[in-house]
Design a protein that fits this description.
By secondary structure, the protein is α+β, with helices and mostly antiparallel strands. It has 13 helices and 18 strands. Helix 9 links the parallel strand 14 and strand 15.
């Protein structure tokens, strides 16, 4: 893997690497299958009552954590309450604003809400069951030096946060594991170690060019297994900025970007054009076909009062990016495309950590980024609802807010999908974000393991869980 987890403590694992490994180490009430459908994990089934304000999760009998203690309804309630109101409070609790109480009921755990949450069975997958040692309160914040007891498909044997960082996992049941995960930040080093036989698999750990090289030049030793995915690259327009607040400018930029040409030349077979923030593989998605049309882009800029000056420039826009290869190369392509319609794109190149901080604060004019692991329509609420921290574009629209509020309270799947489809169409009309493309998932494995990985078993989100059943 390329990214090192910030922590393996389930209460605080917010980064993608920590969550991917956490899904192997810890069980939760539900999890996602490879097609991103919520399925039972600790829970065998669930049902909804009181118009979506009461969720009952029936637990599987006989489950134990890796210290051999039973995972009972009472212990599961204690765990969930630690996430909801423990000290220090887990940042994961912010995903459950309407959750007010938890109780055990026979063989079940009941979550009570102040108002319906149609995504509760999705979001509880993030609340992992663990203890900080046998006999301790489940999911309570560990103190320094305590070893976390896991509960998932793998047990944690070794975790070294030092040069040559690695995690050693052992299967918790017969036929699984062991699995050693090594973190190598630099891509060329990852490829060399892999080619030298120091690893058996890499998933979404290579750039497009390196993946293509493995596929075309190393096919005698390795196989690249691909499946479409839900991770989406998009442009974000800061609507607090007076220029980006002009809809004509946002639409002109979108119509001046020849996505099809860029994809065909740079990412053939590795990405697909996006018409929403939600992949078409998700039931709530509706795709809008926004066509490349530079002539219309120029007409929009003319009507908005941006005339070409003596040097051919209509306006200058600052584009924030990072020095990472993909980011800077795409920025240069966008710069050339926009120059043709009279927009001078001025590149503001900053380090990744600075980029993320400034993006979150809204300290940019135009940039592009990627959402990873988009599993359902709740991303629309976080990214488009007025005042939400995840609304990086500063978008505010009364109709969108009404539809989003309705969708997040709507227990009926059909009615909720209709509301979210309206939101997506509105977004593509107003363009606070311009979806560019969805990324395929690529698993590179040594030839002797390839038969164990059918393409349909690769997670749409890039989860590591399909690796769980592989051992040699």
């Amino acid at each position: 893997m390329d990214q090192v987890p910030a922590t393996l403590n389930p209460r605080h694992a917010m980064d993608a690497a920590g969550q991917r490994i956490g899904a192997l180490l810890f069980a939760s009430l539900t999890r996602f299958d490879a097609g991103l459908r919520p399925v039972g994990d600790i829970a065998a089934s669930w049902n909804i009552a009181e118009g979506g304000r009461r969720w009952r999760f029936v637990l599987r009998p006989g489950l134990k954590d890796h210290a051999g203690e039973n995972i009972t309804p009472e212990r599961m309630v204690a765990c969930l309450e630690e996430y909801r109101r423990g000290n220090p409070r887990s940042p994961l609790a912010a995903a459950f604003p309407t959750w007010v109480a938890t109780r055990a009921y026979g063989d079940s755990v009941v979550l009570e809400l102040s108002s319906p949450d149609p995504y509760l069975h999705h979001n509880v997958s993030a609340l992992k069951f663990f203890t900080a040692g046998p006999g301790s309160v489940p999911c309570r914040e560990p103190v320094s030096g305590q070893a976390i007891v896991t509960s998932g498909s793998f047990k944690l044997e070794k975790w070294e946060a030092s040069p040559g960082i690695e995690v050693m996992l052992h299967g918790a049941r017969a036929g699984i594991g062991p699995l050693k995960i090594v973190f190598v930040r630099e891509e060329t080093t990852r490829v060399l170690k892999f080619v030298r036989g120091e690893a058996d698999a890499m998933q979404n750990a290579l750039s497009f060019s390196k993946t293509r090289w493995m596929k075309e030049k190393m096919s005698d030793r390795f196989k690249v297994i691909e499946r479409d995915g839900v991770n989406v690259t998009y442009m974000s327009f800061n609507m607090r900025d007076p220029v980006m607040a002009r809809k004509e400018v946002r639409l002109a930029i979108a119509k001046a970007i020849a996505r099809e040409d860029l994809v065909r030349l740079r990412y053939p077979g590795f990405v697909s054009i996006a018409g929403s923030l939600l992949s078409s593989r998700l039931a709530e998605s509706v795709q809008t076909d926004l066509q490349y049309n530079p002539r219309e882009a120029e007409e929009l800029l003319e009507r908005a009062g941006y005339k070409r000056g003596p040097n051919g420039v209509r306006l200058r826009i600052k584009y924030k990016t990072t020095p990472m290869r993909e980011g800077i190369e795409n920025a240069l392509v966008f710069q050339e495309m926009l120059r043709k319609v009279g927009i001078e794109l001025v590149l503001d190149v900053v380090e990744p950590a600075v980029f993320l901080t400034m993006f979150r604060k809204g300290a940019y004019q135009l940039c592009s980024s990627r959402w990873v692991g988009v599993k359902d329509g709740s991303i629309l609420y976080r990214s488009l609802k007025s005042g939400e921290p995840g609304n990086r574009a500063g978008f505010s629209d009364r109709l969108t807010d009404l539809w989003l509020d309705g969708a997040m309270r709507e227990a009926d799947d059909t009615r909720r999908k209709e509301l979210l489809k309206k939101v997506q169409l509105r977004m593509m009309d107003e363009l606070p974000y311009f979806p560019l493309w969805f990324w395929n998932n690529s698993l590179v494995v040594i030839k002797e393991l390839a038969s164990r990985f059918p393409a349909e078993g690769i997670s749409l989100s890039g989860s590591l869980e399909p690796l769980a059943g592989v051992g040699r």
